[in-house]
Structures
1.
Amino acid sequence: MTNQDFEGRGSSTSGEHADRNQTMRDAASEPFAKASDTAKDAGASDTAKDAGAKAKRAATDAAHTLSDHITGLLNDQLGAGAQSANRFAGSMRVAADHLQHESPMLAGLVRGLAHHVDGYADSLEGQTIEQLIKNASDITRRQPAMMFGLAAVAGFFAFRTFKSAGAGPVVSPPIQPTHDHPSGNING
């Protein structure tokens, strides 16, 4: 390149020079703008992540609160059921006292049942629902055949109850067929 080439370029108008400078500035600033946008997106992403984490914590806290509330209600119901069983055992003892004169053997059987019901009620009264579930699970592991049998009996009774509740009156057909003749005589 010669000096003339440089001089020719230097003689260009200041407008062209300004345009070239602006183009170069735009080209150079483009990566910086993208980096800034990425940083903004990352900030938005972090904000979204924080909001998601807060929502998850709130949902978990609500679930724990609801679970604790339901467990408390079940424990209260368990205590009320144990008290009802104690009252039932007391009623069984009163019935056994009334039966004593007529049937001492039956009265002894009812007293024995009342004693067992009272024992079960006392053991239920001091337990929580978690302990009751654990004990039921342990019994199921130790004696699966008994639990299967109880489930089968309960299923049978439930089936019979639902079947009889939905059935209407049973209409039987007549035993003797009837034949209507045009003459009016009925012959079997």
2.
Amino acid sequence: MNDRQSADGAAPSASEAVNGMTASLGKVVLASNNAGKLREFAALLDAAGIELIPQGALNVPEAEEPYPTFVENALTKARHAAKITGLPALADDSGLCVRALRGAPGVYSARYAQLAGGPKSDAANNARLIEQLQDHADRRAYYFCVLALVRHAEDPEPLIAEGRWPGEIIDVPRGAHGFGYDPYFFLPELNATAAELDPAVKNASSHRAIALRKLLARLTEEA
């Protein structure tokens, strides 16, 4: 009997394949201490049966993010968490990319204000973003996410997935949900900012959700 078949000879379903693959991973460390990201990932991965453990719970310090690309930083963080814990690790590097600012804040989204000598906070980052856009009519932007999953620290074949969520930047914040730039990130097709969306709606449509669906598809292929 083929190991990809059940006892009755039928090939496993997509959900069975994903569950089998995630079960083989066991516990997975999330290489982040960001509470907002943890909420999103936990909601998205719970249905797949993945037990996600934030790296802070395992005393993993934050990794450096020295690279100019999302994919390099995501891989660095995943390998860092896997090396310290000995467990598979999932990391993301994500940010807001604004066309008029040549892709900024980009990989520096979490510390955008700090680049100009300001504090590290969502409020400061948003204030700098709006200031930088004052002379620009083009407000097109997108959230971008790269996910990297490594089975161990030296994994030569990490799973990589990307997600892009298009929108535009508005001057006046709206909404009380989400985090980061969400109150200023407007989605024309929904007539709402990311911060106005119900968390369940955001979790189903965000850049992280898009990337995660691609990652789960890759896991299905490998199962």
3.
Amino acid sequence: MVRMILEIDINFLLDNKITAHQYTIAKLISDNKVIMLKKYIAYTNTLNDLPKDLSQLKVAGFLPSTFNSGNFINLDTIEISPKFIKASTFSTDPFDEFYAAFPIKALRPDGMYDYLRVDQNKCRKLYHNIVRTKPTVHEHIVRCLRSEVEERSLKGQMAYMKRMPAWLTSESWKAYEDHIETDVDTTQEEKRKAYGTSIE
């Protein structure tokens, strides 16, 4: 029996307003695993919900705009949109973007420069093990990294920036997850206030 293990990013589901079940359908179609999809639908007893699930994937932009979920659905002919493929796979090595965003060096408290981008090959393997095949995780980590660099630069704390291997192994990006979530909430609140002002 062929086994398939899916890792699903909850934030990806929330951002695109789809369920884990709907993501599984899209992923199996994208990977050309139609036989497995049919078994999955039969096992979950969700055949009657398939038109609704496919319609939601279309609303999310993961199915072509020309797709029509009528009474007869042929799973063998359904195509996934480039938007989903881009969101669930990498077209280039994600480590290259992470590497470019990471500071080159830091001036330590003792007045000596310390190069931070060390052990590149080791870090590439570490990063690939962390993000695997999940672009959303990669994007999240890079956003956290940029938030940390920005905050340290503003506060004059770049001297305490970790070297890349230590930054990855200690999962340092997690210390700045609240920062980027706060930034998103603030932006949404500003948009809401701006919208409210414009219609008064």
4.
Amino acid sequence: MAAGIWVRLIEHNRTCRDTLAPCAREDWQEALTEACHTLDVPRPILIPKHLRDYQQFSQTRFLPEHFVESVSFDRMELEYIDPEAKKKKKINEKYL
């Protein structure tokens, strides 16, 4: 599995749809556009909070007010996933 962003649409605290868009950690905004196209939802407006959350935690959330068009879900969650980073971390912890 390649690294990328996992985009989930949450409705009533349950994932109703999701997709994984491959990308490098720094190129997540282009992958978000691709994921929105795949999920057939409008692209959210990025505000400084989203950029800060992604930089600090590798994830962020978008609420319905972050979209120009109306949406049918409660929130969109975006998380960067890198399976190789977990493997490297386990190997490094093994030697500590």
